[in-house]
Design goal:
The structure holds 2 protein chains of 2 kinds. By secondary structure, chain A is of the alpha+beta class. Chain A contains 12 helices and 20 strands. Chain A has a domain of about 190 residues: FAD/NAD(P)-binding domain. In chain A, strands 6-7-5-15-16-17-14-18 form an 8-stranded mixed β-sheet, sandwiched between helices. In chain A, strands 9-2-1-13-20-19 form a 6-stranded mixed β-sheet, sandwiched between helices. Chain A has a 3-stranded antiparallel β-sheet with strand order 3-8-4, with no helix packed on it. In chain A, helix 2 runs parallel beside helix 8 and helix 2 packs across helix 11. By secondary structure, chain B is α+β, with helices and mostly antiparallel strands. Chain B folds into 7 domains: about 120 residues, 2Fe-2S iron-sulphur cluster binding domain, sarcosine oxidase, alpha subunit, N-terminal domain (Ubiquitin-like (UB roll)), CATH 3.10.20.440; about 170 residues, 3-Layer(bba) Sandwich (FAD/NAD(P)-binding domain); about 130 residues, FAD/NAD(P)-binding domain (3-Layer(bba) Sandwich), CATH 3.50.50; about 90 residues, Orthogonal Bundle (Arc Repressor Mutant, subunit A), CATH 1.10.10; about 140 residues, Probable tRNA modification gtpase trme, domain 1 (Gyrase A, domain 2); about 90 residues, Alpha-Beta Plaits, CATH 3.30.70.1400; about 90 residues, Aminomethyltransferase beta-barrel domains (Elongation Factor Tu (Ef-tu), domain 3, Beta Barrel), CATH 2.40.30. In chain B, about 25% of the residues lie in helices and about 25% in strands. Chain B is built from 22 helices and 48 strands. In chain B, strands 8, 9, 10, 11, 12, 13 and 26 form a 7-stranded mixed β-sheet that branches. In chain B, a hairpin with a 2-residue loop joins strand 44 and strand 45. In chain B, helix 3 packs parallel to helix 9 and helix 10 crosses helix 12. Chain B starts with 13 loop residues before the first strand and ends in a 13-residue tail after the last strand. The chains are: A alpha+beta, B alpha+beta. Chains A and B meet through helix 1, strand 4, helix 6, helix 8 and helix 10 of A and helix 2, helix 10, helix 11, strand 29 and helix 14 of B.
């Protein structure tokens, strides 16, 4: 029994402090305003204070912290991407994640499970091998495995997919693939930022951004005007809403992405399983629930409504892969917003508007990038130039046609 | 112990059908109509499960489908809810989540160490040192979770139902019944749905002290059952409501998807518990649970009980209990004054002691906390705090709680209804409902029986009017009146004992206080941190109290505090219902049987099955493929290409349309000629290719790749709409079959079967002819994908097998043999032809793929044009070129996706590779940096196990570079 738990038993009053303050009022001026109190915004605030000693920072969140993509994703972390730029970036994130519980002194339940991307066709096997080859060149633990290996690791998985779908040919296996407690990531960064002087303002909505002579001058909020020369937009699904305020065009389109969770079960699935052909990814949480997602809804929509078709499709595909789960029940379904880019890579860094920094285009791959995007965006905001790890993700790549194609590594075929 | 009561009027059990079952290894008996939990209770089994975290004994709490602690498993299913699932004969049940059985659960020790485990404790421990966490996690995972999966289980897939109705009425209580009747009387077709096996809702169990209600009940049920326009579905959950009243109904067998034109939600209320010490132990239950036990299942809940009341319903429960022979030791009323309450007067008349302005501070546990043996009752002071000195213990083995209700509002929330708190009834009530959705009865705070009947009628008539039936004049809405049936804060601190707010997740009051102290002061944050409402019942009997606690901690109103979002499902739904019995289409070409007979090995290509190669006895796959390819080069081969996408494009704007979709030009294409076509997306990325045949001025026939066919057709339809062009598109992929006759002998073979002039002059390369082949009308195309003289023959699918067999027969003397997909892939590779999707990726543009010749950059417009114009000005970053191995090289060979490495940098990638070819050496296509793309350049390919091999960049085509053979 860890010593820290004894402390709770020995004290008469519960002495745990607030993890983050709730400041009385918004100040008139900040050095940096971060729009969006999700994992990315809070992480950026934390690293600004922790690594760059910039503490006069406000994080403005229109709802509650971690309430957007951070709290709605399926919490998978991996770095087995397809392009060298993507792979390096996500690998750096994964490495930060591995030590994050210690660094933030908060147990994020970062759990390395091993990540299988199943291939159901020779074409898919080619893509998996491509990823494996690129990964290996960059020193990432990633390899193509055969069906015997998959069967040994996950005996419940039906390699034939019931005989009525294309069977599993093999998989890309990525041992460091992990899951984490997503909400806790936001809370722990919030605490770390708060402890270093950052102000977190919930229920504070940015209504407009003041730009003068091509430079940011401040933000209008439902709690008044704030003077600032630097604004970081870290709002993922709402990015286009913010970029409209400064008149920047992006190629982002927003699709809903749905997920669902089952009733809690005793542990049986120790890995993360992704099947592109079946539009499915699934892992089992530490609480025992199966956390499951699928591909994007096939239409553009800014709404987090759920659909029945989604759970029906997912139910069928779950049983194709795991026929023994017929009696297992779906508890709850939900949806989030994904700001998709044409090349399945994010949009990060400086913009044509001075002092306006963008951290968006997070589509379906935002959670796993939380630490590194916070870290590199903090650097970028502090230095007013792009961190080398995100240089490839700059907004201008769409006008320059220097895209970073990650479609082949998106977790399911979107 | 047998706690079965004598027959009760209207009971749901059938005493003529006894049922034997087992629980935790012991034999018991119940009746048809019992719930598992009611049958167990009748047998004296009060401890029915262990709680999630502390493994405390738990029994019946709501008996309304919200009990997440009486959960069982048998040989075939897990997480079976005792208060939801009917008893079946022969069931052999165990409680889930125990170690060593329910009785001696070794994990019950956790309860004693709860001080070590305050809310969120797991966030604050186990993570240092890092290497220890996986071990802790393993333990935590073992302890968490409820039931275990059944590894060998087969899913019971049932076909889904599909339904439609004018008016869906949710809930068959008095409000729902009268809504259904009112609407049906106006001529509306009504579907009335209720989760229980019988109609009546609360009328069937809440009869205490009110004889009239039973008469009303019978009369309503009779009318509804006799009504021609009302269809009734019992034992059916409204599991989820989606956009435009698309509703998921779930019964014991299947999922039914239903579209309703309008919906009346009369789903009633869910009784909410009071929070006091040990309020979770077996013996403490909601008053409504005790009433359900008595009236529906004829089970005696206790011998002696205390009723905790804060409304008239509590008095009615006391009367019910009293009449069923339970000694009601006291009614403890949280209020100072019961008002002018008819039922309270009856209770007093019955000689039951009533303690006004008092509370239950704790339940006194029996041995092992498996039962209770008393209630500690205290008066409340004016400050709302207990007067500890005046506390007394009242002996009892049960406590019935009747302190308030929360709306069963899920269907309303899910369709976008907004609720607000009405202090008149101390309840959330719907404030704003979407079009065609109505609420009636207790879900909207209307409690009196007469009021509910009128309110139901009003809602039914409103719905009917919206649907175009019935009167202009509508009865007025029934207003919500007091005294409030719910107590605003039935929650009491306990300094020592656990007082649970949430039973699913084992959260006691202090957990919420502590979470709030740590900054989780918003309803969504406190939910995520404490997990209140995240358990199997989704907080149906916890969320309201949690909101009340949080509101008080923040000093906010209930409306300011808000609620968490209600998401589907209202009750969990098994995967097998969601999946249903499905259809998995497999597409077979008309020649499939022939291929089978000829030992074809098939591969999946989307939903198609295609011959990969034809197996020869004693010969391996690679040899067979190579032989097939050689045969095409030397003699002739016949390949089934029926899976190609085939689209007819017709209309005055056909040329304009094709010029916009594809990169090439079509205006000047001659009738009777075919052209290669290439399609890009708006990023200039190659997405498909094929050929286009001009059949007449305004009529084209286009092919697409097998894998791209569906997407190309869909994109064409989309663009045709966006551009508003006068063009018709018909996907004839399944209607026509196609085969490719290729090889030097192919002309000779075809000649025997057709009157079409197939001479080189009469039917040149890239020509198209219509004529009969083997007596079947056909389109013939001179194509050259495999690099030999060849004909693609397209015929109606119904006659294709005949044509195929005739060609094989006519070709016997010319040694025609079939060849499969693999041989074709090799043959085209020898010609250096790319395959879209294999040799191109998600970013490949035509320039890097050497397809610049196919792009008419300067025409007016096509999809991707702007991008390609820009890209054309830029230097290439990679180039698709040929690569070959030295003759005689024996391996290891590269595989597709292996990388080309130079000084540690990745400068290229193999997209296609064949270790053996008809040319005698290994060859392939690679993407490589333009600087290294010159023919003759030596490159190093990193193959498996890290070995590097040398290959040479080579010009393509490898075979017949001057394209003489296909002409």
């Amino acid at each position: 029994m860890p010593y820290r738990l004894l402390r709770f038993a020995l004290q008469s009053e519960y002495s745990e402090p607030r993890m983050f303050r709730s400041p009385e009022r918004v100040q008139d001026q900040y050095d940096v305003v971060i729009i969006g109190g999700g994992g990315h915004g809070l992480a950026a605030a934390y690293y600004l204070a922790h690594e760059h000693n910039i503490t006069n920072v406000a994080v403005l969140e229109k709802g509650y912290i971690g309430g957007g993509g951070t709290g709605r994703n399926t919490a998978i972390v991996r770095s087995n991407y397809l392009t060298p730029e993507g792979t390096r970036f996500y690998q750096a994130s994964l490495e930060l994640f591995q030590d994050l519980s210690r660094q933030l002194d908060y147990n994020l339940f970062y759990s390395e499970r091993g990540h299988f991307t199943l291939a159901h066709s020779p074409a898919s096997m080619r893509t998996q091998r491509w990823r494996a080859e690129v990964n290996k060149q960059l020193g990432i633990d990633s390899e193509v495995v055969d069906t015997a290996f998959i069967q040994r690791e996950i005996p419940e998985l039906d390699i034939t997919c019931g005989g009525h779908q294309a069977p599993v040919h093999g998989a890309l296996y990525h041992p460091p693939g992990a899951v984490a407690r997503h909400d806790a990531v936001a809370w722990a960064y919030a605490r770390g930022a708060d402890q270093r002087g950052v102000e977190i303002h919930q229920q504070t909505e940015v209504t407009d951004i003041e730009v003068r002579d091509g430079k940011v001058a401040g933000v209008h909020t439902n709690k008044g005007f704030i003077k600032t020369r630097k604004v970081l937009s870290a709002v993922a699904g709402w990015t286009t809403h913010i970029t409209d305020m400064v008149g920047i065009r992006t190629p982002l389109i927003v699709h809903p992405l749905q997920a669902m969770v089952s009733e809690a079960l005793k542990p049986w699935l120790n890995h993360i399983v992704v099947s592109a052909s079946l539009h499915l990814y699934v892992s089992q949480s530490s609480r025992g629930e199966l956390i499951t997602g699928a591909s994007l809804d096939p239409y553009e929509l800014i709404s987090s409504r759920s659909t029945l078709e989604f759970v029906e499709g997912l139910g069928g595909h779950m049983l194709d892969l795991f026929p023994c789960l017929g009696d297992i029940k779906v508890l709850r379904q939900w949806a989030g917003l994904c700001d998709m880019t044409p090349d399945f890579s994010p949009v990060m860094g400086t913009t044509p508007v001075g002092g306006f920094y963008i951290d968006g285009g997070w589509g379906t791959w935002g959670f796993k990038a939380t630490p590194i995007s916070g870290n590199t965006m903090a650097w970028t905001v502090a230095q007013d130039k792009n961190h080398e790890l995100i240089e490839a993700f700059k907004l201008s790549r769409f006008t320059n046609f220097s895209l970073v194609g990650e479609k082949g590594a998106a977790s399911v075929g979107h | 112990m047998n706690l079965r009561l004598p027959p009760q009027p209207g009971e749901w059990i059938d005493r003529s059908r006894p049922m034997a079952f087992r629980f935790e290894g012991r034999d018991y008996q119940g009746y048809f109509g019992d719930l598992i939990s009611s049958a167990l209770w009748a047998n004296g089994v009060h401890m029915q499960g262990r709680s999630f975290k502390y493994h405390r004994p738990r029994g019946i709490y709501s008996l309304a489908g919200h009990d997440a602690n009486a959960v069982f498993e048998d040989e075939t299913r897990t997480n079976i809810r005792g208060d939801q699932v009917g008893l079946r004969s022969g069931m052999d049940l165990r409680a889930v989540n125990t170690r060593g059985g329910l009785d001696r659960d070794r994990l019950s020790i956790v309860d004693r160490f709860s001080k070590l485990m305050p809310v969120g404790f797991y966030y604050k421990a186990f993570h240092t040192p890092r290497w220890l966490f996986p071990r802790y996690e393993k333990q935590i995972r073992q302890i968490a979770g409820l039931g275990a999966i059944r590894a060998g289980r087969t899913a019971q897939l049932t076909p889904k139902g599909y339904g439609f109705c004018q008016l869906l009425v949710v809930g068959a209580g008095p409000s729902g019944l009268s809504a259904a009747l009112a609407a049906a009387d106006q001529g509306v077709d009504v579907l009335l749905v209720d989760e229980h096996a019988h109609l009546g809702g609360s009328l069937s169990w809440q009869s205490g002290g009110d004889e009239k209600s039973r008469e009303v009940y019978q009369e309503l049920v009779n009318l509804v059952q006799a009504h021609q326009r009302i269809t009734v579905r019992t034992k059916t959950q409204v599991a989820g409501c989606y956009a435009d009243l698309w509703v998921a109904l779930v019964d014991d067998v299947r999922l039914t998807k239903l579209r309703a034109q309008a919906m009346v939600v009369a789903s009633g209320v869910m009784e909410q518990p009071a929070v006091f010490g040990n309020n979770d132990l077996p013996g403490v239950m909601l008053a409504s649970a005790a009433q359900r036990l008595i009236h529906l299942y004829a089970v005696k809940p206790w011998q002696q009980c205390v009723t905790l009341a804060a409304n008239s319903d509590g008095y009615r429960a006391a009367l019910d209990l009293h009449r069923a022979g339970i000694s009601v030791a006291a009614v403890v009323d949280l209020r100072d004054d019961a008002g002018d309450c008819y039922f309270a007067a009856q209770v007093r008349q019955a000689g039951i002691r009533v303690l006004m302005g008092s509370m239950i501070y704790e339940a006194v546990p029996g041995a092992g906390k498996r039962s209770i043996r008393g209630a500690v009752v205290c008066p409340l002071g004016e400050d709302g705090c207990r007067r500890e000195s005046q506390s007394q213990v009242i002996d009892c083995d049960g406590i019935a709680m009747s302190v308030g209700w929360a709306p069963a509002g899920a269907p309303l929330y899910q369709v976008g209804g907004k609720f607000s708190y009405d202090p008149t009834v101390e309840q959330l009530v719907p404030r704003e409902l979407p079009r065609n959705v109505f609420a009636a009865g207790r879900v909207r705070g209307v409690f009196g029986l007469d009021d509910r009947l009128m309110d139901g009628r009003r809602a039914g008539l409103e719905a009917a009017q919206k649907l175009g039936h019935g009167s202009d004049e509508l009865p007025a809405k029934i207003s919500v009146v007091g005294p409030a049936p719910s107590h605003p804060y039935p929650i009491f601190r306990h300094t020592k004992k656990k007082n649970f707010v949430e039973l699913d997740e084992d959260l006691h009051f202090i957990d919420l206080v502590n979470a709030h102290q740590e900054g989780f002061d918003n309803i969504e944050l406190i939910k995520r941190y404490s997990t209140v409402g995240m358990g199997p019942s989704q907080g149906k009997i916890a969320n309201m109290n949690a909101v009340r606690v949080l509101a008080r901690l923040n000093g906010d109103s209930i409306d300011q505090t808000g609620t968490t979002t209600s998401r589907p499902f209202h009750q969990p739904v098994p995967f097998e219902y969601l999946a249903g019995r499905r259809f998995h289409p497999t597409r077979r070409t008309p020649m499939h049987r022939w291929h089978q007979k000829t030992q074809a090995e098939f591969i999946h290509a989307g939903s198609w099955l295609r011959p990969e190669y034809y197996a020869n006895a004693g010969q391996d796959r690679e040899t067979s493929i190579l032989q097939e390819a050689r045969h095409v080069r030397e003699y002739a081969g016949l390949m089934d290409v029926s899976t190609l996408g085939k689209i007819e494009v017709a209309g005055p704007d056909a040329v304009t349309f094709l010029e916009r979709i594809y990169t090439g030009r079509f205006a000047k294409q001659t009738t009777g000629k075919l052209r290669y076509v290439l399609a890009c997306d708006e990023m200039g990325v190659v997405i498909d290719d094929g050929v286009a045949v001009r059949l007449s001025d305004n009529h084209f026939y286009v092919t697409a790749t097998t894998s791209g066919a569906a997407a190309v057709y869909r994109e064409m339809l989309r663009w045709a709409l966006i551009w508003d062009l006068d063009v018709q598109l018909v996907d004839v992929t399944g209607h026509l079959a196609a085969m490719n006759l290729a090889g030097p002998q192919s002309r000779e073979v075809l000649q025997k079967l057709t009157s079409v002039d197939v001479s080189p002059e009469g039917f040149p390369f890239l020509g198209v002819r219509r004529g009969e082949v083997a007596g079947v009308p056909a389109s013939l195309m001179r194509v050259g994908f495999v690099g030999e003289l060849g004909y693609e023959i397209h015929v109606p699918a119904g006659y294709a097998a005949h044509v195929w067999e005739e060609i094989m027969r006519a070709g016997a003397s010319s040694k025609v043999r079939p060849f499969g997909v693999e041989a074709q892939r090799l043959l085209r590779l020898e010609k250096g032809h790319l395959i879209v999707g294999q040799d191109t990726d998600a970013l490949t543009n035509p320039y890097e793929a050497n397809m610049a010749w196919a792009v008419a950059r300067k025409k007016q417009f096509f999809v991707g044009q702007r991008t390609l114009q820009i890209l054309n000005e830029r230097p290439l970053t990679r180039k698709l070129v040929g690569v070959k191995m030295a003759p005689g090289y024996r391996g290891p060979f590269p595989e597709e996706s292996h990388l080309i490495i130079e000084q540690g940098e990745m400068i290229g990638r193999v997209t296609s590779f064949a270790p053996q070819s008809t040319l005698g050496y290994g060859l392939g296509l690679v993407f490589v940096h333009p600087d290294r793309s010159e023919a003759g350049t030596k490159v190093r390919i990193c193959v498996d196990r890290g070995a590097e091999i040398e290959a040479e960049i080579a010009p393509t085509p490898f075979y017949d570079p001057d394209d003489l053979r296909q002409k």
